[in-house]
Amino acid sequence: MNNELNKREQRAVETVEQERWLAPPVDVYENEQEWLLLADLPGVQQDGLRLHLDRSELLIEGRRAAPASGAPLAREFGGASFRRVFQLPSGVDAEKVAAEVKCGVLTLHLPKTEALRPRRVAVKAG
Amino acid sequence: MWTRWSELDRTFSALEDYRRRMDRLFDDYNRPIEERGFYGGDWPALNLYDSGGSLVLQAEVPGLPEDAIELTLNQDVLTLSGKRQVAPPAGYSVHRRERGSIEFSRSLALPCKINPEKVAATVKDGVLTVTLEKAAEAQPRHIKVKGS
């Protein structure tokens, strides 16, 4: 049985080297004005970040800057890029989306469209 | 009788093998094998490089300002400790929280003697880089090969 397993493994078709992706941890908050998304992207600079908003799908991609040089003695993280896709609720004002990366943390503001924002309704005495 | 038992044993060991492979599959889902280090899945993730004249330690510390990281060197044991505080911003409701607050402390025994006077640490884009110059006796030496 083991032999058979090994044989199968040897015969299996291998893929050409694929790019590796890691899903970064993410926080999502909401208030009356916007959704706020925070993601841990250590090693990603502003120019390594790519945000793509396609209708209601938000793609977050972060490429890391080159690691230190030298012979590795211990390796717990590599150069794999970050990637995560979110389905956004309808009502994000795509024109006003703002993002910044600071200290390896992405802050993404997704403002709500006017129609979604709460309005104060004045109550008049009759 | 004995042959039958060994047959059974083999079947079980094959099952065990399957189980291990499945476990590995799940464990490695997010992490390529070469990235699983000696220390397991502790926070922060560390890389240690030997660049000839010095050792270079890198740690992933997203969201940590420089004053939240404490580095101590005791003989050849380097300790990295600190606290990351992640509080939800005021006035927001929470949908998803994966970035936890964490208090961490990790020590590692350096593989060679270093010069404690020549240690430099910087943090950039959420990655801490500590450069530790090797002590004079640990520096690589060039040995000339002579013909006889």
Describe the structure.
The complex is a heterodimer of chains A (126) and B (148). By secondary structure, chain A is mostly beta strands. Chain A has a domain of 79 residues: Immunoglobulin-like (Sandwich). Chain A is built from 1 helix and 9 strands; from the N terminus they run H-E-E-E-E-E-E-E-E-E. In chain A, a hairpin with a 2-residue loop joins strand 8 and strand 9. The longest helix of chain A has 10 residues. Chain B contains 1 helix and 8 strands; from the N terminus they run H-E-E-E-E-E-E-E-E. Chain B folds into 2 domains: 36 residues; 87 residues, Immunoglobulin-like, CATH 2.60.40.790. The longest helix of chain B has 26 residues. Chain B starts with a helix and ends in a 14-residue tail after the last strand. Chains A and B meet through strand 2, strand 3 and strand 6 of A and helix 1, strand 1, strand 2 and strand 5 of B. Strand 2 of chain A pairs antiparallel with strand 5 of chain B.
Lateral arrangement of strands in the main beta sheet of chain A: 1-7-5-4
Helix and strand element order of chain A: HEEEEEEEEE
Question: What do we call the CATH topology of the domain at 21-65 and 80-113 in chain A?
Answer: Immunoglobulin-like
Question: Most extensive interface, residues per chain?
Answer: A-B, 41 and 52 residues
Round the Cα radius of gyration of chain A to an integer and report it: 22 Å
Strand order, main sheet of chain B: write it out.
1-2-8-7
Question: What share of residues are in beta strands of chain A?
Answer: over 45%
Series of H and E elements of chain B: HEEEEEEEE
Structural class of chain B: alpha+beta
**Mean model confidence by pLDDT of chain B:** 83
How would a textbook summarize the main sheet of chain B? 4 strands, antiparallel
* Main pleated sheet of chain A: 4 strands, mixed
List low-pLDDT spans of chain B.
32-40
Number of strand elements of chain A? 9
Task: Output the radius of gyration of chain B.
Answer: 23 Å
Q: Assign a percent range to the helix content of chain B.
A: 10-25%
The coarse silhouette of chain A is elongated
Classified by CATH, the class of the largest domain in chain B is Mainly Beta
Instruction: Indicate the multimeric state.
Output: heterodimer
What is the rounded distance between the termini of chain B?
Answer: 69 Å
Alpha plus pi helix count of chain A: 1
